[in-house]
Fold each of these.
Amino acid sequence: MSLTTVLDRTRIAMSEIADYAGALGNPALRLGVTGLSRAGKTVFITALVHNIVHGGRLALFDPAAEGRIRRAFLEPQPDDTVPRFAYEDHVEALIGEDRRWPESTHRMSQMRLTLDYEPEGFVARNIGSGRLSIDIVDYPGEWLLDLPLMTRSYEEWSRTMLEASRSARCAPLARDWHRHLATLRPKEPAPETDAVKDAELFRAYLSACRDAGASFSALPPGRFLMPGDLAGSPLLTFAPLPVPEGETAPKGSLWAMMARRYDAYVRHVVRPFFRDHFARLDRQIVLVDALTALNAGPEALQDLGRALGDVLSCFRHGPASWAASLTGRRIDRILFAATKADRLHHTSHDRLETITRAMIETALERAEFAGSAVEVMALAAIRATRETTVRQNGDALPCIVGVPEAGETIGGETFDGSREMAIFPGDLPDDPQAALAGAARDTVHFVRFRPPWFEAAGPGDGASFPHIRLDRALNFLLADRLA
């Protein structure tokens, strides 16, 4: 099954024509901020916009460091059917008296950031100033997991989901659903109530997996977890069944009903989501929460790598050119960012990058082979800690200092969210393959920290969120378009 149908391709082409027409005299770049649930998409977008608009410390973002950005401001987003990204609310949550991280994204939203800049070239600089609009889309990470469904039949998806649900991590969470599955006869007709109950138990299993951090690859369909405007819709009333290979669904059977609804979900939910948003991206940053997976162990690392590989196989990578644009827009630069690097001392950042590269090696090689420029880096869009050295038993330990979130624990101590602590998170293994095999599980421990405190509750011009390598990420993603 191809990713796009003829009708999809036609619609994508029409959208691109409209984009090109709208960009005449006002060039625009669509930046995809991609990541699974809790990878930090909302925080990244908020920090990116705030740092550029408020003139934050962006020493490695060449256009800013060279003083060529004359003005940065927000404009109404171009898609009238998509809600605006709640930027001001997220900033208020981060800098308020009871500072906290923004809530997870529950629906799609978008915003447009426009930069007036001074071109680098002598001729261009004397002709006039430049302008670039950057369209940024935020969406629930759970929805991203749906993209691989475009290439899978109901039967293939059922077998994949059932196999995952029988793994050691997921089987205890799937007990009620599996018990109900054993009572069903997929080849026979069944009342609607059987389908509804099966879907409800399947949804409860998916929710338990997400809450326990048990598996990403076992979570689709994403709308079961974040239904958005589809809450209560018949489109969400299906579930995997144990169906035999090499056979087709008997007419009027429970199997046929489930397969029909799965196909409708892919047709009416997944394909439009891909066509209207992901097929139109120019640049892409993939946020990877490798530290949480390292905490959880080798199965979690393998699962995260597998889920990201499946998702990234759906994107159109390759160099941007007029010839390539004839067959659809392509993503010519991809940044894989290992997020939350502020939970580690900087001496481990290069190891975090190496481990992340090893975890997504296949997806990374595929993008490079297609001709995209690819980079991997460890970053923190908002830095919540600072670094120090603590002496213990004659040893110098590289530590981080911050306020752990209430409820976080280390060594049997539970934090209340108000005290600043110096914490030694451990050292990541030098060998990335050893880390993927679980060598880091007992040697490192990462906790969540509250957002940093600002001396001025409302940052003014020139003050913004501290970060780790956000400027380097911006330079890779945007600098060539501001030359």
Amino acid sequence: MHRIIAIANQKGGVGKTTTAVNLSSCLAAAEQKTLLIDMDPQANSTSGIGLDKNTVASSIYDVLIGHKSAGEAIIPTELQFLHVIPSSISLVGAEVEMVNMLSREQRLKSALASIADQYRYIIIDCPPSLGLLTINTLTAAHSVIIPIQCEYYALEGLGQLTNTIKLVQQHLNPALEIEGVLLTMFDGRLNLSKQVSEEVRKHFDKKVYETVISRNVRLSEAPSFGKPIILYDILSSGAENYMALTKEVMAR
């Protein structure tokens, strides 16, 4: 049985892409056949996994618009159990092009129907907005992981995201649930990080993962080498954090 998990938060810089790339890679390292889909026009998951967003032959844009099937856009990666459907700059215009399409909110769900059973996990990196691309992702997904940065205004905008999730549940995907809330960029030396952690746990209770993603230089460096953290520095605390998160995700 496959599981489709969206990584979503309309705030930028909270660790969505880092989580999508590294959770996918750790699931693959655990021999769970995994597909990573980059739904962000910035294509940072695409470059973070080692692909050149300017030269990919097909992308999620082609799939959403109907030029290619999902199967035709899949690319293998350095990790045996990890495949990717990349993004490209063309995705910027997809929301406008889809406006007049029939069932525009369900384009991704329909496209994935033919390939979903080939995978145990499908992880989708959302753009930092609540537009049609994110709605498509939430409509296709079984659940959503919400990364929250341990900084000021951590909970700002979360109301909008949870309202969007409720609207999708009411009108497009009744089975959608919050998979978990992930604290990122945690710095144990700062009271602020601890205060944010307490506040988020008070708000979301058991939905918050025990694992927190600590600030880690090696984790920040890995994307510039086009590698997930487990291939860049397996001994770093960032790799340890994401391997621990993967165990929690697989156990839920």
